[in-house]
Design brief:
This protein has a single domain, classed as 3-Layer(aba) Sandwich (Glutaredoxin). Helices cover 30% and strands 24% of the residues. Strands 2-1-5-4-3-6-7 form a seven-stranded mixed beta sheet. The longest helix is centred in the middle third of the chain and has 12 residues. The chain is globular. This is FAD/FMN-containing dehydrogenase. Keywords: Signal.
Length: 153
């Protein structure tokens, strides 16, 4: 029984479905670091997804020294998957620290959104959207590559 559970848990990342170009993303709503709700909408042009702390650090480094509203001006939203972070740590330390960021972080506390989009754990997934449909998909492994892509967006 233990082996079956371990196998199921090890395969769960593979259950995320790859998003195909032309596919319309299913709607979702998440709270940000200020507990303000945001719903994916047709005005969103770029969706950034970080599945772990390494990905979130890439986004943070790419946005260092960028003014408040930088992502919003580019119609870009950032989703951070924090489901594996212990609730006490997130509530007492991580989320309060995120309130100092110059950008909005949509917090996927239960892994209900980030897991919809397949990709490497240690990279940032970039989904380019047009009225909710996926136009292209990329992944970034460095903050500099992500920064350059955001500048061109």
């Amino acid at each position: 029984m233990k082996y079956a559970i371990a196998l199921l848990l090890s395969l769960s990342p593979l259950m995320a479905q790859a998003v195909e170009v032309g596919e319309r993303l299913a709607p979702w709503t998440l709270l940000d670091q200020y507990d303000q709700a945001y719903s994916l909408n047709d005005q969103t042009r770029t969706l950034l997804v970080a599945r772990n702390m390494d990905g979130a650090k890439l986004v943070k480094a790419a946005l260092a020294d960028r003014p408040k509203g930088y992502l919003e001006a580019r119609q870009t939203v950032f989703v951070a998957d924090i489901q594996r972070m212990p609730a006490l740590i997130s509530r007492l330390f991580a989320i309060p620290a995120m309130r100092d960021y110059s950008y909005r972080v949509l917090l996927d506390r239960e892994g209900s959104v980030a897991t919809r989009y397949a990709g490497a754990e240690d990279k940032v997934l970039w989904l380019q959207l047009d009225k909710g449909q996926v136009v292209s998909q990329r992944e970034f492994a460095t903050a500099e590559e992500l920064r350059q892509a955001l500048e061109q967006n």
